[in-house]
Amino acid sequence: MSSGSLGGGGSGMGEGLGSTLDEPVMDTIMRDVRMVGTKMKCVMDPRRVDVETLKDWDLWGPLLLCLILATILSASAPADQKSLVFTSVFVIVWCGSGVVTVNALLLGGTLSFFQCICVLGYCIFPLTVASIFCVTIGAMTGFWIRLLVVAFCFVWATSASVGFLSTLVPENRRALAAYPVFLFYLSLSWMVALAS
């Protein structure tokens, strides 16, 4: 058992491991914001995805994107369905990504549970952009324009997710791992396309 103060010069457990107990709150927040921004860049350009960056998982970005998507879609829903839409989006995102993750692990994937949830959550970003378009500008255009934008963002989200997951699942099982990802983003995309 080691003795010493938590933040002092003693031989505490966190010493040498990059302990952040003494770090100012603003530094912690800015470090997390930069980490979220770095992961968003990986999703924005899936062709140049840095697998090592995405292996360092966090759930702040996915939670924020999920809340934004659920809020936007529920704001555009009829008054008696707002809470139902918000809850549906929230449950589909978290339970759906959990099911996709368990599937990838059962197929022999070499990833952690939260790492996969993190990647799937960050890859919701294109659909969040599509939902902002559909609720603002898309409401003035037409269903087919909205559908085209959502289809583009669906392909973007799916390719970013599959690009990362395919490196961590055995080659002969990649199609089995990609199919649930396809269904996961397809269900969210359909909800976005129907938003008015």
Short description:
The chain is an all-alpha fold. The protein has helices spanning 25-44, 51-55, 60-75, 82-106, 113-122, 125-135, 143-165, 174-194.
Note the beta-strand portion.
under 5%
Low-confidence stretches: 1-17
Termini separation comes to 60 Å
The backbone outline, from C-alpha atoms, is globular
If helices are DSSP runs of H or I spanning 4 or more residues, what is the number of helices?
Answer: 8
Please state the structural category.
mainly alpha
**DSSP E strands, number:** 0
If you compute it from the alpha carbons, what radius of gyration comes out, rounded to the nearest whole angstrom? Answer: 19 Å
Could you give a short account of the major beta sheet? none
User: Can you write the helix and strand succession as a string?
Assistant: HHHHHHHH
Helix fraction bin:
55-70%
Which whole number gives the mean pLDDT? 82
Descriptive notes:
- This protein has eight helices and no strands.
- Helix 4 packs across helix 5, helix 6 runs parallel beside helix 8 and helix 7 packs antiparallel against helix 8.
- The longest helix is centred in the middle third of the chain and has 25 residues.
- The N and C termini lie far apart (60 Å).
- The N terminus is likely disordered.
